[in-house]
Amino acid sequence: MNYTDVCILIPTLNEAATIGDLIKDFKKVGFSNILVIDGNSKDGTAQIAELEGARVVLQTGKGKGQAMIQAFELIESPYVIMVDGDGTYLAKEAPSLLEPILVGKADHVIGNRLEKYSPGAFTKLNLVGNRLINLLFDIAYGVQLRDILSGYRAFTLDSIRELELNKTGFEIETEISVECILKKQLVEEVPITYLPRSEKGETKLNPVKDGIRIGSTIYRLAKVHNPMFYFGIIGFVFIMAGLLTGTYVVIEWLDGTTRIPLSVLTALFIIFGLQMFIFGMLSDLIVTLHRQTVSLIQEKNKQREITNREKIIDGEDGK
Ligand SMILES: Nc1nc2c(ncn2[C@@H]2O[C@H](COP(=O)(O)OP(=O)(O)O)[C@@H](O)[C@H]2O)c(=O)[nH]1
Ligand SMILES: [Mg+2]
After folding, report:
1. Confidence at residue 319, expressed as pLDDT on a 0 to 100 scale
2. Which of 12, 200, 239, 244 is deepest in the core (most CB within 10 A)?
3. Which of 193, 194, 176 is closest to 185 using CA atoms?
4. How far is C-alpha 218 from the geometric centre of its chain's CA atoms?
């Protein structure tokens, strides 16, 4: 396979400290097809990238997600490697990311940072946040992925074009991971090195604000895939609240005080919570039936295509 078939896609926003070396490193490994999508950096990132021989495109909107979506439209190479421009990932590990795709084991490969990260690469908050987000994701989507937020990934152009992506900010990796699962793509993880950011370049990610956004994206997108999870969480919160107020009501009642308004509230909490579980079960049923219908239609279409093809071949033979 020829490395010119692989587009190295680098989103950048003020990464002048690292972008030059990163492009050089990829070239050393043999990748010459490099696309930098720049968010109108003020520190000369775009100029440095151009000098190093990368194709540079300025993004038309705002946010890493918008940049990626714009770039996916521009790329024509059959394989894409996406990598942060901050020098936290190693170019020499790119071939190991491509490997599962080339042997046909995967459509989308995620570089898993959580197995061999360097000291200082993650802050404590980042590490805990990452683990929590991955746990939430795995429960919501019934998969076993370790690092859905990784910025080092490889995929085929066809597989990324199939995804419906709308998120403009740092939720893009989450949306890509969710869409891969909804589109039943083969997703693999490969352990990679993760280095600390250069002191000169600052992270653009706000761990609290972006963390909450990412968490709520996972939760909201789960509504269609796993409604029992979506409604179950709301139900769980209300039933817990009901049990709490209910315990208080019972304790007070044993002491001789009857709390009527709080008893009513307890009943409402529990009824609402149970209703959410019933909603979840019904939605789950609808989703399952819908999936069965879709797969039946797909199967029928496939059969029809095969019969049509056979008819055409028979016709040609008859001539
Ligand atoms: N084009 C573009 N790139 C961005 C934007 N925000 C962040 N990036 C780049 O996306 C990559 C990931 O961002 P980073 O701050 O490293 O996030 P972190 O790796 O999660 O800390 C880096 O190469 C950033 O320069 C943006 O708004 N537009
Ligand atoms: Mg980064």
Report:
1. 57
2. 12
3. 176
4. 9
- Distance of alpha carbon 30 from alpha carbon 89, whole angstroms: 16
- Residue 318, pLDDT score: 62
CA-atom Rg of the chain in angstroms? 25
Six token digits for residue 265: 């509230």
Residues 56 and 36: their CA atoms lie apart, in Å, by 5
* Beta bridge partners of residue 279, listed in sequence order: none
Mutate to test the pocket of ligand 1, among 64, 83, 123 (most ligand atoms within 8 A of CB): 64
The tokens 């918008």 sit on which residue? 66
What number does the ligand 1 atom closest to the CA of 85 have?
A: 23
Tallying the residues shown for the chain, one arrives at: 319
26-49: per-residue pLDDT in tens? 999 999 999 999 999 999 999 999
- Computed over every residue of the chain, the mean pLDDT equals 94
| Ligand 1 atom with the shortest distance to the CA of 15 | 25
**Three-state secondary-structure class, residue 202:** coil
Could you tell me the two tokens for 28? 């050393």
pLDDT in tens, 38-90: 999 999 999 999 999 999 999 999 999 999 999 999 999 999 999 999 999 99
Q: Which ligand is closest in space to the CA of residue 62?
A: 1
Other CB atoms within 10 A of residue 206 CB: 11
